[in-house]
Write a structure and sequence with these properties.
The complex is a heterodimer of chains A (about 600) and B (about 220).
Chain A (H helix, E strand, L loop, with lengths): L1 H25 L18 H4 L6 H5 L18 E2 L12 E8 L11 E3 L2 E6 L3 E6 L5 E6 L17 E3 L2 E6 L3 E6 L5 E6 L14 E3 L2 E5 L10 E6 L5 E6 L30 E3 L4 E5 L20 E6 L5 E6 L15 E2 L2 E3 L2 E3 L1 E5 L4 E7 L4 E8 L6 E4 L6 E3 L10 E4 L13 E3 L4 E7 L2 E7 L13 E7 L7 E7 L4 E8 L9 E3 L3 E4 L6 E6 L5 E6 L9 E5 L2 E8 L3 H13 L12 E7 L1
Chain B lengths: L3 H21 L10 H8 L3 H12 L12 E4 L21 E6 L15 E5 L7 H6 L4 E5 L11 E3 L4 E3 L6 E3 L5 E4 L11 E4 L2 E4 L13
Antiparallel strand pairs in B: 1-2, 2-3, 3-4, 5-6, 6-7, 7-8, 9-10
């Protein structure tokens, strides 16, 4: 009996212990309920008073705003703000900085409207920030599929119209966000990522449309530009940059189905002429890389095309070099600027090309005319340009092919890759972030197309030319005389820094492997100020104004091709070009 | 008879496990590879298609490599001829392969994350883990670079390093494919091998998760 009782007590104790355990496992102390979509976070006052962006504002932005990739449709990257000058820029100090939580290339400009900043980063992320205080207002993130081949993990920014923020997501989906909440308003599929299509550009917003192009020139895509209704996301038009059989230009793809995988990707925002409603898009390399594997001129690869923004119709084009075999994408579009040539004013298009030439073109309502072209870095591939058409004559020894190795300058990254130039109407100078003294080799090999896989068929190297005393070079050119006015060399670094010009006579650019963000005198290229950020600066710098004060902003975050070039430089001169630390952050500066 | 307490315990554990299972269930994937499905996803038709796609998800061709799977060269996949160690030459550039179910002969090429690279090297140079996973000097790793998802196709014969052609991350196949240089955040997942009837076969599932991961 006693034993039995003891046994019972033991049993009860164990049962109690188990019950306590069970209770803990099944019902912990209840947590407070999670916020639900029914109770959205309060909209911060600065967003409550956010004013919709009008189409007129895009044409003529307020001096203190930066509403699109290059601030204005002409692509100048110029701010009319002038408080920061050559005299006081030495007192420029960080106001705030913010970690983006992402690695890889942070290339987007902080877009600023009425004190609200919108920043796109790698990782399909858009941040809205109080531009003065640095508070995060909302954060949008879209998952990237884990089976994606994302060759260039970056974004070059958002577009604005009305109360919406437009973001070209990496997985080839265009997303419209509510500027006040960051919530998705609509999304439009652009193409299929499993077939190699992805996006990295900032959408062009013009004529009531949101217009994007697709990346994937190394993955056998057929490039195109597509427009969507800005309000609804409904597709408006789609124009391929490689013609199908029967379409104009299809005779430049005479062999089989090569046009279907012909590349000609579009991964930088077009510049736009509201007068003619034409947008000017730069196009990428042909696919695969070796021209002998796709005979013909291959329109419209490595070209600029003028698209009627209303219909998408190709109204004009200029191909910088036919049958590209050097991976010279010509995606950064020409800027719209008038210049003097032979005593005549030309309504101009000026392009600083990856092929190492400065191209002087003319824009009309229905045509692009060649005016002149000259190299801005060492270029040994073109022996001459046809004076009428600008078509280059190619030195055959400098053109790689399948099984044929060729040595050429500039390297496959070109005299200037994607980082945009800037133009100042005050100095009337064009500012070019160039890379000089880099050459390379390519040898082609046969390659089979598999959807969504690399479709390049080439092995490349890069080297520093003998006797080189510098690599990166910030150049200033007078467009009326076609002369280089000054040049600022960087002895031990490449230059991957988009340029900002300001009315204060100060230029801003990062782009070097030493993590500096710098200010230069626009008239002579002298360094006026420099600041070492957390990573290398590949971002597009901007300037804006709040409560009467001028700010400069840029993203720091090294990656993508700047990092690839660093790896290749480190092979050329071992240990001299170590990896640059990655990790993105936004920096905002002002003079005390 | 089970006591009340143990019943409570059991139901509590079951509830706990069920909650975990639900949480761990993968999200519906409409994007199985064809544009139609992706468009469907974007148009919000995902739910309508979900039951059918739920089946597609367990499609053997999409499942990760399993024990006893054989390996077939991607360029000769149509012939379904399993690779033997002697099909790979010593110290030569990697061969890309798909796993194949040995019973049904299903090639697991429904997901690019199943693609593996094979190398035959002198096992003397292997670290203990790699030695353990190798079969007759053949090592297998996920072919997908964890940086941005490119296929790791370059080979530096002089230093015996694998290189991704996209952003030049290099990996040492003799030391668990650890990252030697470049932007890759982690090593290539290893796929332990064994020999079955003279052919290369999968000994264990991937060690680690193939593919890249968004931050």
């Amino acid at each position: 009996m006693k034993r039995n009782a003891r046994f019972r007590v033991t049993l009860m104790t164990s049962a109690l212990a188990l019950a306590v355990y069970a209770a803990t496992a099944s019902a912990q102390q209840p947590l407070p309920p999670l916020p639900t979509p029914d109770t959205p976070p309060p909209v911060p006052p600065i967003l409550q008073s956010y004013k919709p962006v009008t189409q007129d504002e895009l044409k003529q932005p307020a001096d203190g705003d930066w509403l699109m990739y290059r601030r204005t449709y002409n692509g100048w990257g110029y701010s009319p703000l002038s408080q920061v000058t050559a005299e006081n820029v030495g007192r420029l100090k960080p106001v705030w900085t913010l970690a983006t939580g992402q690695v890889e290339g942070h290339q987007a400009p902080p877009i600023v409207k009425n004190g609200v900043m919108f920043v796109a980063t790698p990782g399909n992320q858009v941040l809205a920030i109080d531009a003065k205080a640095g508070n995060v207002l909302w954060r949008f993130k879209r998952p990237i599929p884990d089976d994606m081949l994302l060759l260039h993990p970056t974004s070059r920014g958002v577009g604005l119209l009305g109360d919406k923020v437009y973001f070209a997501a990496a997985d080839a989906v265009l997303v419209a966000l509510d500027a006040k909440t960051g919530k998705e308003v609509w999304k439009a599929p652009v193409e299929d990522y499993t077939h190699g299509y992805y996006m990295s550009l900032a959408p062009l917003v013009a004529d009531g449309k949101v217009i994007v192009g697709v990346s994937g020139g190394e993955l056998g895509v057929r490039g195109f530009v597509a427009a969507f209704d800005a309000e609804t996301g409904k597709p408006a038009w789609k124009t391929y940059t490689v013609p199908a059989p029967g379409e104009p230009g299809s005779n430049t793809w005479p062999t089989g189905d090569q046009w279907k995988t012909g590349g000609s990707s579009v991964w930088i925002t077009a510049n736009y002429d509201p007068e003619t409603n034409l947008s000017f898009w730069g196009t990428g390399n042909g696919g695969p890389w070796m021209g002998d594997q796709r005979p013909g001129d291959n329109l419209y690869t490595s070209s600029v095309i003028a698209l009627d923004t209303a219909t998408g119709k190709i109204k004009g084009y200029h191909q910088y070099h036919p049958n590209d075999s050097w991976d010279w994408d010509e995606v950064s579009p020409p800027i719209l600027v008038d210049y003097q040539h032979n005593g005549k004013t030309i309504k101009g298009l000026v392009d600083v090309a990856r092929d190492g030439y400065l191209w002087m073109l003319e824009r009309t309502g229905d045509k692009i005319n060649f005016i002149d072209g000259k190299p801005f870095v060492k270029q040994n591939v073109f022996s001459r340009l046809d004076p009428e058409t600008g078509r280059p004559e190619i030195d055959p020894a400098r053109k790689p092919a399948t099984g044929k190795k060729a040595d050429f300058c500039p390297s496959l990254w070109g005299g200037k890759d994607w980082p945009p130039v800037a133009y100042s109407p005050k100095t009337r100078l064009l500012y070019i972030p160039a890379n000089e003294n880099l050459c390379g080799t390519i040898i082609g090999e046969p390659v089979t197309y598999t959807p969504g896989q690399r479709y390049v068929g080439a092995t490349s190297t890069m080297y520093i030319d003998q006797g080189a005393d510098h690599i990166g070079e910030l150049q200033a050119w007078n467009l009326d005389t076609e002369q280089k006015v000054w040049s600022h060399p960087f002895a031990n670094s490449q230059l991957w820094g988009p340029v900002l010009a300001t009315a204060g006579g100060v230029l801003f650019a990062g782009g070097t492997n030493d993590r500096y963000f710098r200010a230069f005198d626009a008239s002579n290229g002298k360094t006026l100020w420099e600041f070492r950020t957390s990573s290398g600066v590949n971002g597009v710098p901007v300037s804006f104004q709040i409560d009467g004060k001028q700010y400069i902003a840029v993203q720091s975050g090294w990656g993508v091709d700047a990092a690839r070039m660093q790896a290749r430089l480190n092979l050329a001169r071992p240990w001299e070009f170590p990896d640059v630390p990655q990790g993105g952050s936004i920096w905002v500066f002002a003079v005390d | 008879m089970p006591s009340k307490a143990s019943l409570m315990l059991r139901s509590a554990l079951r509830a706990h496990l069920e909650a975990r299972t639900t949480a761990m269930q993968p999200r519906w994937r409409c994007g199985a590879g064809r544009i139609g499905r992706r468009v469907a996803l974007e148009l919000g038709l995902c739910f309508a298609l979900a039951p059918r796609l739920a089946l597609a998800q367990t499609e053997p061709a999409r499942e990760r490599p399993k024990e006893n799977d054989l390996l077939v060269n991607v360029t000769a996949a149509a012939a379904l001829e399993p690779l033997k160690p002697d099909d790979l030459s010593l110290d030569v550039k990697q061969t890309l392969a798909w796993p194949m179910d040995p019973e049904t002969k299903t090639l697991r090429n429904g997901s690019r994350l199943n693609k593996v690279l094979l190398l035959r090297l002198d096992p003397e140079g292997f670290d203990p883990e790699t030695k353990e996973r190798a079969a007759e000097g053949v090592v297998a790793y996920s072919a997908i670079c964890p940086h941005t998802g490119c296929d790791v196709t370059n080979w530096h014969p002089d230093r015996q390093l694998l290189e991704c052609p996209c952003h030049y991350s290099t990996y040492d196949p003799k030391e668990e494919a650890k990252v030697v240089s470049g932007p890759s955040p982690r090593r290539l997942p290893a796929l332990p091998l064994k020999i079955a009837d003279g052919r290369l076969a999968v000994a264990k599932p991937f060690i680690g998760r193939p593919g890249f991961q968004q931050m």
